[in-house]
Design brief:
This protein has helices at 2-11, 18-25, 30-44; strands spanning 47-49, 62-64. With 69 residues, the chain is mainly α. The protein has one domain: Arc Repressor Mutant, subunit A (Orthogonal Bundle), CATH 1.10.10. 13% of the residues are buried. The mean pLDDT is 94.
C-alpha cells in the first residue's frame, strides 16, 4: 500500500505523535489520515503504539514495529 509505505518512510526510526506524522506528510484532515494511513499500518502490524493500553492517550506515539519483538 503506497500510503502505508509513505507513513513508514516518514517514521524512520523515530517515535512520532499523530500530529507530527501528519505534519511531515503535509496532511491536515485527521479522519482521512487515520483511515488511509494509520489504521491500515496498524492492521498490517508494521507500526505499533508506544502506549498500547491507552490507544486514545494524548501522549500516544507510533513507531515501526521491531522484527525481534
Amino acid at each position: 500500500n503506497p500510503s502505508v509505505q509513505k507513513l513508514l518512510d516518514v517514521l524512520g526510526d523515530e517515535e512520532l505523535s499523530t500530529a507530527q506524522i501528519m505534519e511531515r506528510l503535509d496532511l491536515s484532515h485527521r479522519p482521512t489520515f487515520r483511515k488511509n494511513y494509520l489504521n491500515p499500518a496498524l492492521a498490517q502490524g508494521v507500526i505499533e503504539m508506544t502506549i498500547p493500553d491507552k490507544p486514545n492517550s494524548r501522549n500516544q506515539k507510533y513507531r515501526r514495529k521491531q522484527l525481534d519483538r
